[in-house]
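Minutes, project check-in

Agenda point 3 was the complex the collaborators sent over. CS summarized: two entities, 854 residues total, and the question is how they sit relative to each other. Sequences were read into the notes so everyone works from the same version.
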Amino acid sequence: MDIRPILFTLRRHKLTCCLLVLQIAFTCAIVCNTIFLISQRLDLMRVSSGVAEQELVYVQMAYIGSRPDEKARAAVDVAALQSIPGVKSATLANELPFDNGSDNSDVRTDLAQRMPVLKASQYFGENLAHTLGVRIVEGRDLRPEEYVDLSDAFTLLAAKQYDKLPKVALITRAMADRLWPGQSPLGKRYYVGKNISFTVVGVIASLIRPGQDRLDASVQYSSVWPLRLTLIQGSFLIRCASQDRDRVLRAAVDKLKALDPNRIVLDKGTMEQHRRDFFQNDRAMAGILVGICIALLIVTALGIVGLASFWVAQRNHSIGVRRALGATRGNILHYFQTENFLLTTMGIALGMVLAYGINLFLIVHYELPRLPAIYFPVGALLLWCLGQAAVLGPALRAAAVPPVVATRSV
Amino acid sequence: MVGYSMELAWRGLRRYPKTTALAVLTVAIGLAASMTTMALLHMLSADPLPGRSQHLYLAWFDAVQAKPQTYTSLDNDWATYDYKRLKTADAEALLAAHKGTLQAAVADLDAQVEGDHGEPSNEHVLATSSDFMPMFGVALRDGRHWTAAEDAARAPVAVIDSELAQKLFDTTKAVGRVVQIKHHAFRIIGVSQPYSPQPHFYGLNAWTFSGSDRESIFVPLGAAMDAGLAASSTDGCDDVTEKSKQYIAVDPVHCEWLADWVQLDTAQDVAAYRSFLDHYAMQQQSALASYGKKPQWRLLSVQQWLTLQNAIPDNVRLNVWLAGSFLLLCMVNVAGLLAAKFMRRGVEVGIRRALGASRRAVMLHHLLEAGMVCLLGGVLAWPLTLLGLSLLRMQDQGFTDLARLDVVMFAGLFALALGVGVLVGLLPSWRVSLVQPGLQVKSA
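CS then shared the predicted structure for the full assembly.
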């Protein structure tokens, strides 16, 4: 189809054309970036935790202060939980996957290093690796004789008796690869302070590091230390078959309340729900962004429909003349479709530049990554389709104009 | 002329009702989206205590005898916070100096609380000094707040809010009753209205925008410490502090846990307090020097404090940007529609011009028509904005409870609609005013 007559006609409507092109450009730029923002959120929400999420429940109690019998009390509590039918394993943990904060420490492979190699979170709790259901891919789990009570660890730290502190730890694959790239981490030593070091005895395939602000490359930097929680302060973590979770959770709360009626349950639930809560804001934000995207596309489509309808009505007479001179319905239809394609293409070209600009702005102000190149062709395709779909109605109406219109005066 | 142009504009509006409706709807959606996000931002950045907060300042100086915390490790510390808090002795020294009109040291604590009956519950307790209530405007329903003498005597007295009173005692007339805080008896001397300014600027370490969180009990600092209440986080501790007292039940002697607020009514007061604080911080010089630190101090207004702590969530700002660009797109869209609509009347305008209508008259008519479209859009945007805000409130993000439309934003909506109308109408109206009289008459 010859596009010269189309361009010639468009030149007579410079202002409206420019506005339409501008509108398509804005839509293209905003939609590309918004979809990118949405995909960022979705990627976050898909992060793998490495634990048996379907089999875990937790109960968090209010801190009741240190008391002389705290060690015995913790042991009684955990034993009571383990006695609930269906419970595979139970323990007290200092932190859980998908908590909003976490304990972290600087990790060095050599004390001479000025800057730490990385920051990693430390989980502790007796038999925690088994309870969480993480997979140990190299080496072994921590042994019972390697555990030290956390309260004793504090005393030892204060007395500077560093040799009695725990000496072994489990670390994740990601952490091992970052600390000793290309080498087996087993038997290697790392430092978390001047006088505290751990020898790696086992490697965990994957274990997420808790905390909202840590969902970047370091999301897998976690370790497990052989420390037993004695302060009745951590969260009780219980593993059971997934269909037993509700029953076990109810039984656990009842048991804990029976052992000490004065205690207050701050939080309880399943790990699945803990994950949902953790990503609540991201989900809400993704929802808003999807809404904005749809609204944008609808508004743009309506704009195209509106303008095209107007043009069709305005050119009613000349369409009739063309039809009378021998143009087929198809010719008229294609005329409007090509016109729309040209305008959309101009809009897309401008929109790509704008999209890149907005992306640069977001990189600077919101620390977002660069827009992947794939967004440009996909965005262009989306807008071409949108434009063609929007113009179809008015174009069909134009094609339906009978040749006899040419004989009527305006 | 304006009246005539108005009439023409009104007739013009009704001539192509479908296009007009489309333009009005587009404007309404754009306005509603931007007003929804701007209303939320407006509420989040609103003054937490109108009439009071401009006189309130957070005072802080460095007195922690430890190396500056450049990194965290077990040898050094567990986690670093920076809420500009003070150790007990320093906070008490600033209070005792009485350099401000009023001054209060504040700490947010959690404790198990019991009334006459029912299960014990976990409540947020605000441990503070006697000036807090008059200074921060906590309204009392009943009874009184405690005095400086009771502060000094570490008297176990408490002011609780009416909702907690109802929960613990089934009545709001709880003055004279006894509440157990962590198994220590506190005599209730006052019942207050629920108090929760947004944002929670005097205790950002506890939360920023509360949702349902609120301190429901106010007790004197000394009495709270006597009852064994302790903070669960600190900004930093002296080197001598036992490790176990740095992160669960914070050691009040060696760790920073109290925020010190002063009320300073005039600029002279502020200047005087600055020099007082500077002088006070300098006295720490010798103690800090051995840890390689220089003396430092801050006196921050409420707004400075909220900015420093980045109190408004990034998401909210991002949404305003998005909605703003959406509005821009809607404006371009409507401008295109109006341009097409106006140019279709080229013949008619040509005749009007030939009959002697000035360019200005033509332009005014079309600007008025564009303005009407956008004003109608504004009217329609009002319910849409309310709908958007109620959708926002349905999300449970703590701060979204604040998504409401106040009078200022309501006026803002219509100002914006009018502004948008003029902007949108300018280009198409100018274009249509350029129509030459003669040519159009000929072709018609």
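Noted in discussion: The first strand of chain A starts at residue 56 and ends at 61.
Follow-up: revisit at the next meeting once the mutant set is ready.
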